[in-house]
Design brief:
Number of helices: 11
CATH topology of the largest domain: Peroxisomal Thiolase, Chain A, domain 1
Largest sheet: 5 strands, mixed
Low-confidence stretches: none
CATH class of the largest domain: Alpha Beta
Radius of gyration: 19 Å
Structural class: alpha+beta
Number of domains: 2
CATH architecture of the largest domain: 3-Layer(aba) Sandwich
Distance between the termini: 19 Å
């Protein structure tokens, strides 16, 4: 959808656990190798929580860093949205716990569950609040504690993911040139079971059986997800830029969800985007789901990959199946 919203990113931040897990660490206990993992995914290492650490700590640190980067205080935030499917507790929401941890006022705070698309969906949702005047300044966080829902005996999934958090402070633009130009959000629930956690919800509450059968861990049909991701990522890139009235060649930087290096490479080749104009950090973080886009966004800003006036496209896709994009003039 073509948009013309005077919304800007005031600050960003990230947080990942200090504990780094390499491919060699997995190779010591699973039938896999560094070469096998790198060849199929592009991942060399990822960060994972240790016992006693949790999602809220990462979200809080990322949020504080984003506020510091924006030169703002927690008192200036009047909306918090967390994109996550691995909250600290079923109740209350991660956003409410984050509100208390940051010392914010009694402001609007809620979670948005769209898996790997979570940050993009939360970003657009928060932008609507800013545009309509329901909020002046919003903190949007993508955060996942994926190691808590991984079957560490399943080499097809456990090597792919990492833990982390990324945050962005957004507000009405202080420079008229900074705008959101287009966005696309969508879902195909008929393919929801391609990536899912069978138990732990209302249909299949926790029991001795669900624990014994390892039904609380994520399951994924990798081949089908790969095909969907390459096709959908290419389509959403072309559709978003076309609706904004610009060309793919006009993009200064593409920040995709860090799902798999092969997916990113294939989709960008089909879309006609050279990799030098794509932010890739999956080699260091793995797939951090909702945290991957904001982590990459922060690194792009800190690494001066984004200049004033640049067209930057955020693209994500994930369980649901869901997808989303945001095209911004920075």
């Amino acid at each position: 959808m073509k948009l013309d919203w005077a919304v800007e990113i005031a600050g960003t931040g990230l947080s990942v656990p200090a504990h780094v897990v390499t491919n060699a660490d997995f190779a010591q206990r699973l039938d896999t190798s560094d070469e096998w993992i790198v060849q199929r995914t592009g991942i060399h290492e990822r960060c994972m929580l240790r016992d006693g650490e949790g999602m809220l700590g990462m979200a809080t640190e990322a949020g504080r860093r984003a506020l510091q980067n924006a030169g703002m205080s927690a008192a200036e935030i009047d909306l918090i949205i967390c994109g996550t499917f691995t909250p600290e507790h079923p109740l209350p929401s991660a956003a409410c716990e984050l509100q208390a941890a940051l010392g914010c006022r009694w402001v609007q705070a809620f979670d948005l569950s769209a898996a790997c698309s979570g940050f993009v969906w939360a970003f657009i949702t928060a932008a609507q609040y800013v545009v309509t005047g329901l909020a002046r300044t919003a903190l949007v966080v993508g955060v996942e504690a994926l190691s808590r829902v991984l079957d560490m005996e399943d080499r097809a999934t456990c090597v792919l993911f990492g833990d982390g958090a990324g945050a962005a402070v957004i507000r009405a633009s202080t420079d008229a040139r900074r705008r959101i130009l287009a966005a696309r959000l969508g879902a195909d629930g008929s393919r929801g079971m391609l990536i899912w956690v069978p138990a732990g919800g209302a249909k299949e509450p926790a029991s001795h059986r669900t624990v014994a059968e390892r039904l609380h861990y994520m399951r994924m049909k990798g081949r089908e997800v790969y095909k969907f991701a390459v096709s959908q990522m290419c389509d959403i890139i072309h559709e978003t830029v076309a609706e904004a009235g610009v060309r793919v060649e006009d993009l200064a930087l593409l920040i995709p969800h860090q799902s798999n290096l092969r997916i990113i490479e294939s989709a960008c080749e089909k879309a006609g985007i050279p990799l030098e104009r794509v932010l890739v950090n999956i080699d260091r973080y793995g797939n951090t789901s909702a945290a991957s886009v904001p982590i990459a966004l922060h690194e792009a800003r800190q690494g001066r990959r984004i200049k004033p006036g640049d067209l930057v496209l955020l693209v994500a896709f994930g369980a649901g199946l869901t997808w989303g994009s945001v095209l911004m003039r920075m």
